[in-house]
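Weekly modeling sync, notes
Attendees: S.R. (lead), two postdocs, one rotation student

Agenda item 3: backlog of single-chain predictions. S.R. asked that every request posted to the team notebook include the full sequence so nobody has to chase files. The rotation student volunteered to paste the first one in as an example of the format we agreed on. Action items at the bottom.

Example entry:
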Amino acid sequence: MAGKFQVRILPAYCKGCGICVSVCPKQVLGLGKDKAQVVQPDQCIGCLNCEYHCPDFAITVTEGEKDE
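Predicted structure, as returned to the notebook:
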């Protein structure tokens, strides 16, 4: 199941609050340069915690491999 999800962060909306980082059970996200970043994309299990908890709607999680 891991690796079948794509996490996208819209930097223009992200204020770097870190809520998404704290609610992710697989440590997929991290903070860098005052914004959230996807640091371990292959670990995403699609729980949507980050998307549901983001107060600025800066995160989307979709099913499917990353677009190359």
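Discussion: group reviewed the output briefly. The first helix runs from residue 19 to 23.
Action items: rotation student to repeat for the remaining queue; S.R. to check formatting next week.
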